[in-house]
UniProtKB/TrEMBL annotation:
It is found in: Cytoplasm; Nucleus. Belongs to the peptidase T1B family. GO terms for cellular component: cytoplasm; nucleus; proteasome core complex. This is Proteasome subunit beta. Component of the proteasome complex. Keywords: Cytoplasm, Nucleus, Proteasome. PANTHER family: METALLOPROTEASE TLDD (PTHR32194), PROTEASOME SUBUNIT BETA TYPE-1 (PTHR32194:SF2).
């Protein structure tokens, strides 16, 4: 028996590693470890939107987190693109900021060339092409684009990170979406109610109150949602803002 086999049979190599105080990954015979770098961080938060007759309401909390750390309690996830269109983004904050700046630049060029603001339908298509263009190194963002269409009806567009989207009447996104979406399905979509006589689109006041109640409930269960809710209300008169305080722990 050679020396290596003898030492191995007596478990000496393991004991030497333990006695030396070396971590297991540094001891002889330990598997190789590869160190990687991720350019993405998920900063948490929740957004939601409800569209109705002549209005659309979009809301997002203002907490920005990284793991179990709160980076700031006053960060807006909503970006006003013009007087009829708002974009709500959650995910990696660096990518959200870059995306918002890029879209604002395109909208400014459009207004300069055409002497009018871009409509929500055109904005939806522009956002799709912008996200798809970056598909090989995508913006780590989940986006909800809202606004009034050419008939002054509320529109909600929901996107995945590489640009696939669809128009809906309501949608939730973010860390609290698993709690919010079933509530919206019930209260706005009437998908899981058996005693509904008439399916009515909520009024503007009802939609605002639903946003407040929904976020108050999510903040009790989701540690990444909290501090304050920013609510933007889009009508033919423009964009108005309301705020609602949540728990701060």
């Amino acid at each position: 028996m050679d020396a290596a086999s003898y030492l191995s049979s007596k478990n000496y190599t393991h004991n030497i590693g333990v006695r030396s105080g070396l971590p297991e990954s540094k001891q002889a015979g330990a598997p190789k470890q590869h160190h990687g770098f991720s350019p993405y961080v998920f900063n948490g938060g929740t957004t939601m939107a409800i569209a109705g007759d002549g209005y659309v309401v979009v809301a997002g909390d203002t907490r920005l987190s990284a793991g179990y750390e709160i980076m700031t309690r006053d960060h807006s996830k909503l970006c006003k693109l013009n007087d009829r269109v708002v974009l709500a983004s959650i995910g990696f904050q660096g990518d959200s900021t870059t995306l918002h700046k890029h879209l604002k630049m395109k909208l400014a060029m459009y207004k300069h060339n055409h002497d009018k603001d871009m409509g929500v339908e055109a904005c939806a298509q522009m956002l799709m092409t912008t996200l798809y263009y970056k598909r090989f190194f995508p913006y780590y963002t989940i986006n909800i684009l809202v606004g009034l269409d050419k008939d002054d009806q509320g529109a909600v567009y929901h996107y995945d990170p590489i640009g696939s989207f669809e128009r809906e009447t309501y949608r939730a996104a973010g860390t609290g979406s698993q709690l919010l979406q079933p509530l919206l399905d019930s209260e706005v979509g009437f998908k899981n109610k058996s005693d509904v006589v008439e399916k009515k689109t909520p009024t503007l006041e009802e939609a605002i109150n639903l946003c407040k109640d929904a976020f108050a409930g999510v903040a009790e269960r989701d540690i990444y949602t909290g501090d304050r809710v920013q609510i933007l209300i889009i009508t033919k008169d423009g964009v108005k803002e309301e705020t609602f305080t949540l728990r701060r722990d």
